[in-house]
Amino acid sequence: MSFKKWMSYISIDVGSILQGLGPIPNTHLVTRTTGRAVRAVIEDRLCNIQAPGLSHIDFSEIGVMDFSCADEVVARLLVRFVDTSRPREIFFILKGLSPSHLEPLSEVLERQEILAIHQDPSGSVELLGSVSPAESKVWDFIENNKVVSKKEIKSAFVEEDQRAWTRLANQRVIFQEINANRYHSLGSLIKDTGQ
To answer: For residue 56, what are the β-bridge partners?
Structure first.
């Protein structure tokens, strides 16, 4: 499958956004006001890609990220694009997150009951947030198989697992082809971009 057949791609470097916000170089996401400003730039850049789109949000140049910025930059961005009235069809993969970033981010995601995908430096992806055992099982299934049909889902999973599948689709951590009954792992799609 060709990635370009299904989605456009954009990589957004949070560190360069942060540098562009003020006259003094800064690598720390530490105030709600800063978080809002960074999110506004991200949302503006997302308006320039054709939907559906896949966006890498890169935090590798960020030193410190506090809870308020984890909420403003990541959680509120994801909530806006998970909502059925979302402005565009965009899917997200976070990368460049250090252990010190993951602590506030994980807490914010769990508190708001939203999911996110993190890609580590080796290219492996993991699901972050409030993940049930059934969701974890389904997530592993799609990541291992790359592309799965609705028929395969119904034959492989009991009803509870199928509800987990629905939540993963609604949380936009898997991609459903337009006018098709096939689902793709975002991990396989991002690898198809060469990233």
So the answer is: 11, 93
Helices (H), 3-158: 3-6, 14-20, 32-46, 67-69, 76-82, 99-112, 133-145, 150-156
CA distance 24 to 33: 16
Q: Are 6 and 39 in contact (CB under 8 A)?
A: no
Structural domain span for residue 72: 3-192
Structural domains counted in the chain: 1
| Residue 39 phi, psi dihedral angles, 5° rounding | -60, -40
Q: Which residue is it, tokens 């492989």?
A: 156
Q: Is the dihedral of CA 16, 99, 72, 189 positive or negative?
A: positive
Pairing of strands 53-58, 90-95: parallel
Q: Along the 195 residues of the chain, how does pLDDT read in single tens digits?
A: 455 566 899 999 999 999 998 877 788 999 999 999 999 999 999 998 888 999 999 999 999 999 999 999 999 999 999 998 898 899 999 999 999 999 999 999 999 999 999 999 999 999 999 999 999 999 999 999 999 988 888 888 887 787 898 899 999 999 988 767 888 999 988 887 776
Contact 36, 69 (CB under 8 A): no
